[in-house]
Amino acid sequence: MDPSGLPSFTERLDASEHANLQLALDALLSSQDGWSLLGLPAELHHFGGFSLASILGGRFHGPSEPCAPEFVRVPVDVDRTHPCLRLGVYLLSFDEAPLVVLVGFSEGHGPRPGLLLDVVAAEPDDAAAFVARIRELMHEHNVFRGKVLSFGFTEWGGFGISFHSLPAIRRDSVVLPEADLDAIERHTIGVSRNAGALLAAGRHLKRGLLLYGPPGTGKTLSVMYLCGQLPGRTTLLLSGPGAGALGQAAAIARSLQPSMVVLEDVDLVAMERTMPGMGTNPLLFQLLNEMDGLSDDADVVFVLTTNRVDLLEPALAARPGRIDQAVEVGLPDGDCRARLLDLYLRDTDFDGGDLTGLVDATEGVTASFVKELVRRAVLVAALERGREPDDSSPPVTVAHLDSALDDLLHHSAPILRSSLGVNPGATDGADHAVVEPGGWFAYAPNTGQTFPG
To answer: What tens digit of pLDDT does each residue of 107-143 get?
Structure first.
């Protein structure tokens, strides 16, 4: 029949769906014979009047002669890509109805950026049924399912998605008070493992967890640990400028359950509404709406972290159903500091000396401070070894740790000491000063004595 008057069915998709669309088409065509593919020149993307209907109707007079199809390799996982059609036309049948299907992908420039699916059929219902089936196959073969994803700006100003492979974090590497770690696990891992029992009792699965505390205390490490303990869960990481992709991340989370949305430094987008400029903050209202809009059986976890819990909007932090559990990830106590030293010394050739004095001396510091302390102690030991460097770990002693602590407190820039969680000053007459609940005190590593600062 004459195609010039046939209606076209057009779907515009997000550019991030390119691989999902191609995999859906590949799956559909894998069981068919007699289909064909014609490539079209990529420069057609720059013509405003270009469409499948305009070509078939004879209204387009640009360079639309068929050519060899061009494919681009699109990431589908860490270090994995899939070839995806850039611009071309499939001639195929669906439920015995002949179809003409145009696929076009353009980076964020030109009159038609993004991903286009254009279908022409003798009957509009046939085109609509085909698009519906493609949508089903895109969901079935979705490359984001079960992956760890983050969002960042593309060179054209839109949001792009990146895949990540997070290191496996053992439970004993998350050095928190046992009660705090139990609370984090119970609200995330525990709910996931008992989802059936909760649903049978008519209880909801959606939940919000807030981790708050000073910088460097282990909030991000706790999130990485949770990712490893929830295999197969689609995890979406939002931080910095990527927080602007909240809507896109929430849509993926709803579609690919079970899922987890991690929003770091949530105070940057969810400050109290009475603060200057926050009363009309669109991201705050979007976050509240996304958390409210989940159905009760949605297995979606929102994990929010902040260094400034005092700045958070009460409608977020103080309302059950949005934040159901808040855990303070504070400065490590004596037991945690001892465990941190053992953890970071585990891969060194430590001589097994008594660390009691060092544990006492680091009262009031963060976990990141202890990690940096051990790194510097290894460096001190390597420099002391006095021979050509090699790849072996030098023996580390308590004296090396004391020297590294003295270097951190006396010779580091104040901003570094502050960022690592330690008092930037020092007390006269002592080797270095550290904080103690109720005040400052000084510690002399040569004697192991402490006295008020």
So the answer is: 766 556 789 999 999 999 999 999 999 999 999 999 9
Alpha helices in 318-366 (DSSP H): 334-345, 356-361
Residue type, 384: E
Q: Which are the contacts of 67, defined by CB distance < 8 A and separation ≥ 6?
A: 39, 40, 41
pTM score of the predicted model: 0.82
Nearest to 15, CA basis, from 145, 133, 116, 97 = 116
Q: Are 233 and 258 in contact (CB under 8 A)?
A: yes
Residues 81 and 73: their CA atoms lie apart, in Å, by 6
Other Cβ atoms closer than 10 A to 140: 12
Cα end-to-end span (Å), the chain = 93
Identify the DSSP state of 187. I
Write out pLDDT tens, residues 284-339.
888 888 887 777 778 899 999 999 888 888 888 766 668 888 999 999 999 999 99
* DSSP class of 14: -
- Across-strand partners of 99? 92, 121
